Amino acid sequence: MKKLITLIIFVVLSFSTYAQEQVPIEFLVDAIIHVESRGDSTAIGDGGRAVGILQIHPIMVREVNRILEKNGSDVRYTYNDRYSVEKSKEMFYVWKGYYHPNSSYEKIARCWNGGTNGHMFYCTNRYWRKVSDRLETLAMVD
């Protein structure tokens, strides 16, 4: 009986992850935005270090600019660009494209929240549950 329950849980969890990743990446971004700021482009958090819809820290702006320079792009972002909805999303996509071109939505979200190895930290599980719940809501509405 214990093996059967374990198998059922595994199948349900596997299906849940598979189903989530059938929705467009924009839904994941919208879910992260909802969790981070409820869509408030003027939101300030983490002691004033994280701002905008995606709660971007200055180090992320520098990292995105480093990636762009490495890729030969002339585009650069400023700290004030974190207040722009469009530019914040652009920075997210640069980061995601460089570090997570084929990662699961869970890994992307947990690393956005917890840094490079965020997917390995227990503390990012709660964040992922919030993003996942919002992602499921968005997918049902569509």
Topology:
Layout: H1 2-20, H2 25-37, E1 44-45, E2 50-51, H3 58-70, H4 85-99, H5 105-114, H6 124-141
Antiparallel strand pairs: 1-2
Helix pairs in contact: 2-6, 3-4, 5-6
Give your account of this protein's structure.
The model is unreliable at 4-18 (pLDDT under 50). The protein has a single domain (24-141), classed as Lysozyme. The protein is mostly helical. The chain is globular and about 40 Å long. Strands 1-2 form a two-stranded antiparallel ribbon. β1 (44-45) and β2 (50-51) form a beta hairpin. It contains 6 helices and 2 strands, in the order ααββαααα. α2 crosses α6 (124-141), α3 (58-70) crosses α4 (85-99) and α5 (105-114) packs across α6 (124-141).
